[in-house]
Write a structure and sequence with these properties.
The complex is a heterodimer of chains A (444) and B (209). Chain A is mainly β and 444 residues long. Chain A has three helices and 28 strands. In chain A, the strands form seven sheets. Chain A has a four-stranded antiparallel beta sheet with strand order 1-2-3-4, with no helix packed on it. Chain A has a four-stranded antiparallel beta sheet with strand order 5-6-7-8, with no helix packed on it. Chain A is globular, with a radius of gyration of 26 Å. In chain B, strands 1-2-3-4-7-8-9-10 form an eight-stranded antiparallel beta barrel. The longest helix of chain B has 22 residues. Classes of the chains: A mainly beta (444), B mainly beta (209). Chains A and B meet through helix 1 and helix 2 of A and helix 1, strand 4, strand 7, strand 8 and strand 10 of B.
C-alpha cells in the first residue's frame, strides 16, 4: 500500500533499528582481534601458492635425491613412486609403475654401497595386506625380485609380512636398512630387522636379521656415530649399543643366538622413560643430532607431550652408558647426561626435527595431540642453548595449508627445504633473508 | 580489544544515525494520505526497505607510507545489503544500511566485510523512476582468518529504480567504497596501513510503506 503507515510507526522502527545497530556494533568492537599483520597489507603481499604439477594420489612418505647418470633426481614415495629432475622444480612428477602384485609404494630408502646409491621400496599388496621389499634399477626403472619374502628365512624369526617402516643407518662406510615389520597375524608389537646391504649388488637377502623382537611402535631411528642406535618406542627412549667394537655387524643379534658370536654383547638401556621426573613419556618424536664440530655436540629428542630432551655429549661412545641427571636441562655445565629442556609447546608433540643450515635454525614439525594440525616452528640454537622459538615469517607460510597440518618429516637439498605433510602434500621452500617462500610441490 | 580509534569511529558513525531519530520523533504526525494510483511525492515519515545483491570489485589500495597504489590482491566477490530509510521531505531521506561482502585471497582464503553505516540520500523521482544518490559513513568490520579489524567506512553511490507498483521498485545501484585501515604500531606496524578503494554493483528492490 502506498503510504499507509503512520509516522509514529516509522519512528518506532527507527529507534529499534538504531538500538540494535548500536548494541551489535559495541559487541563486535569488543571482539577485535589483531593478527601480526594488517589485513589489507597481508593480503597485498600474499603470493599464489604454486599448485602441484601432478594430480596423483598419495600421502608423501619419503623423498630422496639420487644421481642417475649425469642427472640428479628426486624420488618420492606417495602411494606410488614418482621422480623428477632435481634441478627443475617446475617439471612434472613422473610415475614409476609398482612391482607386480604390489600396488602401494609405502616408503623408500636409499643405501649407498661402494658409492653407488640403491633405492629400496617397501610395497604392499592391497588384496592380502602383505608387504615386500624391492630394489629399483634407477637407470631403467625396473624392479628386482622381492628381496626378503620370497627367498629369505631367518633362523629366529620369519621375514616380515608387512613393512611398517623402512629406515637407513649409515656407519663405517656402509649402509644398513632397518625394517620395522610384523607378521599379519600378530597384532601387538613389531620386529626390528636389519637388512645388510654390504654386497655390491645390494641383493644379499641372506643378511636379513632380527635386531629387536617384540618391540613397540618404533618411531624414529637415527645414528649416533658408527654403531649406536637411538630409537623410541611406546615406553621410552632406548639406546642400542654394541660391545665397543668397530661396527654393528649382521652377525650380532639381540637375542644372543649361539650361532652368531657377539650377539649377546649388545646392550640396551632405557635412557628416558615414563619414570622421568615429570612423568613425561616419549612418543613419536624426532631425534636430531647436532653437527657440532669436534667431538662434542647435542642430541635432541622430542616427546609426545611437546618437551625436548637434550643430551650434551663430549664422547658419542658414552651415550648408551649415560643416565638421567637432574640439572642437565638446557645447560652446558654438565656433559654426557640426559636432561629435559625447558623448551616446549603445550598440547603439541613434535614430529620431526632438522637442522636447516641455510637458516641457521632447528626446524621442528609439530602436531596437535588431538588433530593433525600443527605446521612447524623455527628454534634458535645458541651453542648448546635452546633459544627462542619462532613462527616462520611471511604470508607464504601463513597462507599455505602447510601451516595448519602436521609435518611428517623434513628433507633438505642444499638451500631447498621440503616438508612432507599429513595429507596436505609435499611443500617446497627456499629462504630469503629468513623468510620462506613455500609452494606446493606434490599433492594428492 | 580494539584501539581507541575503533571506538571513536564507532561513536562517530552511531551518533550520525542517532541524530536523525530524535529529530524525527520531534515531528508531529501527519494525517494519513489516501492511496493513490500514481506515485505521490515523498513526505516526512515515508519509510522504505531496500534489499540488494550483486558483485564486489576490489579496485586498488593506497599505501600512505610511500604513496604507492598496490593491487588489493583480492578476487571479485559478492555483496548483499539491507537498508532501512525514512524520508525527511520530498527529496531527502536518512537511514542505515548493513551489508555483507566476501572476497578471496590468491590462495582462496576468505576475506569478508560487515559494514554498517548511516546514510543520507537525495532521491529525486521522475514519474515512475527514482534516481537516488547517497553518502554513507559508518564502520566496516573486516574478517580474515583469525584477524578482525574495525575501520571507518565512507561510501557513496547512485541508483536507478523503476516503480512497477505503488510500493515496489526494482533497479540497479553502484557504490564506491573507501575503507582506510590504519594501524599505529601498537600491535601491528603502522607501515601496514592501507586505504582500500572498491566498487560494488548490485540489483536492488525497494519496498515503500
Amino acid at each position: 500500500m502506498w503510504r499507509e503507515s503512520t509516522q509514529h510507526r516509522g519512528i518506532f522502527y527507527g529507534v529499534w533499528i538504531a538500538l540494535i545497530f548500536w548494541v551489535l556494533s559495541a559487541f563486535l568492537l569488543g571482539s577485535c582481534n589483531h593478527g601480526p599483520r594488517g589485513i589489507f597489507a597481508e593480503l597485498q603481499e600474499e603470493q599464489r601458492i604454486q599448485q602441484a604439477n601432478t594430480g596423483e594420489n598419495g600421502i608423501p612418505t619419503a623423498i630422496h635425491k639420487i644421481q642417475v647418470g649425469s642427472e640428479d633426481r628426486y624420488y618420492l614415495s606417495a602411494h606410488r613412486l614418482f621422480w623428477r629432475p632435481s634441478n627443475n622444480d617446475g617439471s612434472d612428477w613422473n610415475e614409476i609403475g609398482s612391482p607386480a602384485s604390489f600396488e602401494n609404494i609405502d616408503s623408500i630408502a636409499v643405501a649407498t654401497i661402494s658409492s653407488t646409491p640403491y633405492l629400496f621400496a617397501s610395497v604392499t599388496n592391497n588384496s592380502n595386506g602383505r608387504s615386500g621389499l624391492f630394489l629399483l634399477n634407477t637407470s631403467n626403472h625396473s624392479w628386482s625380485g622381492e628381496l626378503m619374502a620370497t627367498t629369505h628365512n631367518t633362523a629366529d624369526a620369519p621375514p616380515p609380512e608387512q613393512v611398517v617402516q623402512l629406515l637407513e643407518v649409515e656407519g663405517n662406510g656402509r649402509t644398513r636398512l632397518l625394517i620395522v615389520g610384523r607378521q599379519l597375524n600378530v597384532t601387538d608389537g613389531y620386529t626390528l630387522y636389519s637388512y645388510n646391504t654390504r654386497n655390491s649388488d645390494a641383493t644379499d637377502d641372506d643378511s636379513l636379521t632380527v635386531l629387536w623382537p617384540s618391540v613397540g611402535i618404533i618411531n624414529d631411528v637415527d645414528r649416533a656415530g658408527a654403531s649406536r642406535l637411538l630409537l623410541t618406542d611406546a615406553t621410552g627412549l632406548y639406546c642400542v649399543d654394541d660391545d665397543g667394537s668397530a661396527e654393528l655387524t649382521e652377525t650380532r643379534r639381540i637375542d644372543g643366538s649361539s650361532s652368531l658370536a657377539g650377539m649377546n654383547q649388545f646392550e640396551m638401556r632405557r635412557l628416558v622413560s615414563d619414570s622421568t621426573p615429570d612423568g613425561d613419556a616419549i612418543h613419536l618424536g624426532g631425534i636430531y643430532i647436532s653437527e657440532t664440530s669436534g667431538s662434542t655436540g647435542d642430541i635432541y629428542v622430542s616427546s609426545g607431550r611437546g618437551a625436548l630432551y637434550r643430551y650434551h655429549y663430549t664422547n658419542l661412545g658414552d651415550i648408551c652408558s649415560s643416565t638421567w641427571q637432574d640439572g642437565c636441562d638446557n645447560t652446558t655445565d654438565i656433559d654426557d647426561c640426559w636432561g629435559k629442556s625447558n623448551f616446549g609447546i603445550p598440547n603439541y608433540r613434535y614430529t620431526d626435527m632438522l637442522w636447516f643450515a641455510s637458516l641457521g635454525r632447528l626446524l621442528i614439525g609439530i602436531r596437535d595431540n588431538n588433530t593433525v594440525e600443527g605446521g612447524y616452528r623455527e628454534i634458535e640454537i645458541n651453542g648448546s642453548q635452546i633459544g627462542e622459538i619462532h613462527n616462520p615469517q611471511g604470508t607464504s607460510y601463513s597462507s599455505a595449508a602447510l601451516s595448519t597440518t602436521s609435518v611428517r618429516s623434513f628433507f633438505v637439498d642444499g638451500g631447498k627445504l621440503f616438508a612432507l605433510t599429513e595429507g596436505r602434500g609435499m611443500w617446497r621452500a627456499s629462504y630469503d633473508s629468513g623468510v620462506p617462500t613455500w609452494s606446493l610441490d606434490f599433492s594428492r | 580489544m580494539c584501539t581507541l580509534r575503533c571506538y571513536i569511529v564507532c561513536a562517530l558513525a552511531l551518533s550520525i544515525t542517532g541524530i536523525f531519530v530524535p529529530t524525527l520523533a520531534a515531528q508531529e504526525s501527519q494525517p494519513e494520505t489516501p492511496v493513490a494510483d500514481t506515485p505521490l511525492p515523498f513526505t516526512l515519515g515515508d519509510q522504505f526497505f531496500t534489499i540488494s545483491a550483486g558483485a564486489y570489485f576490489p579496485l586498488f589500495l593506497v599505501n600512505p607510507s610511500d604513496g604507492s597504489l598496490p593491487s588489493t590482491n583480492q578476487t571479485v566477490g559478492g555483496v548483499g545489503s539491507l537498508q532501512w530509510g525514512i524520508y525527511l521531505n520530498e527529496f531527502f531521506s536518512v537511514g542505515i544500511e548493513t551489508s555483507y561482502i566476501f572476497s578471496f585471497s590468491p590462495n582462496t582464503r576468505l576475506l569478508s566485510f560487515w559494514p554498517t553505516s548511516a546514510k543520507v540520500t537525495f532521491a529525486p523521482r521522475i514519474g515512475y523512476f527514482l534516481i537516488p544518490i547517497w553518502l554513507d559513513v559508518g564502520i566496516n568490520f573486516s574478517y580474515f582468518e583469525d584477524s578482525t579489524k574495525a575501520d571507518l567506512l565512507l561510501k557513496g553511490g547512485v541508483g536507478f529504480y523503476w516503480f512497477f507498483d505503488q510500493a515496489w521498485a526494482i533497479g540497479l545501484r553502484a557504490e564506491y567504497w573507501f575503507i582506510p585501515q590504519t594501524y599505529d604500531n601498537v600491535r601491528v606496524p603502522a607501515a601496514d596501513t592501507r586505504l582500500l578503494n572498491s566498487l560494488t554493483t548490485s540489483i536492488g528492490v525497494i519496498y515503500l510503506f
